[in-house]
Amino acid sequence: MPILVTMTSESPTQTFNMKQPMYIILEAPDRVGKDTQIALIIKRLSDRVFHKMHYSALPFKNPDKHTSHSAAQYEQMFEIMKQLKPSGINVIFNRSHLGESIYAPLYRGYSGDYVFSIESKHIRELRDNVYLITMVNTPEILMSRDDGQSLYSNGEELRAEIDGFVRAHRKSLIKNKLLLEIGTMTPDEVSNIITDFLTEAQPEYNPLQQSLFNEIL
Fold first, then answer.
1. Which class is 3-216 in CATH?
2. Higher model confidence: residue 17 or residue 9?
3. Would you state the pLDDT for residue 155?
4. Residue 127 half-sphere exposure, CB side, CA atoms within 13 Å?
5. 2, 27, 74, 178: least surrounded by Cβ within 10 Å?
6. Residue ranges in the chain assigned as alpha helix (H)
7. Which of 116, 108, 96 is CA-nearest to residue 65?
8. CA pair distance 134, 132, nearest whole angstrom
9. Alpha carbon distance 217, 213 (integer Å)
10. Domain boundary assignment for the chain
11. Minimal CA–CA distance to 138: which of 190, 186, 183, 106?
């Protein structure tokens, strides 16, 4: 729903419509196609200007240092959203807080679920602005694209990553969220679903959410 904004300056009062800002989070295992979909979102939502943020892996081996840095980073992420909200600036996040809840127990030996406590502190104020898109695919398809740079070393670990992303998506308190299993869909077919989700009047629109990965419920 557009917000009506009135600005007063030395010139006569000007009134214009400003859309609610969008903070779009894309989460996925490696090689699912996040970068491609981010580019397509920017192209298809051409009436908006997006800033891009990419959270990379942290170098810390010490669990305490890793968690303290991650916690500060994700607190700041939500604070950035809240500070930008009045200005109407849109941001796309390539990876975000949910990845910590997946990779921490699998590869670093501790629970990453503290990120959900961080999320819960901020999400009410951002309820209508944050959109979570989680994309997954089968282990077979992802392993066929393996570049040797991922954390997993076998199909079981990759399956655990995929299941972890599904669980984290469902546990997230973000209201507007879309879970997609890509399968053999083309980038444009995936983008059509994402664009529909982002532009729907009812943001909870999610045609595939209930049918995915029933075996892990």
1. alpha beta
2. 17
3. 76
4. 3
5. 2
6. 34-44, 63-84, 98-103, 114-122, 139-144, 155-171, 187-199
7. 108
8. 6
9. 7
10. 3-216
11. 183
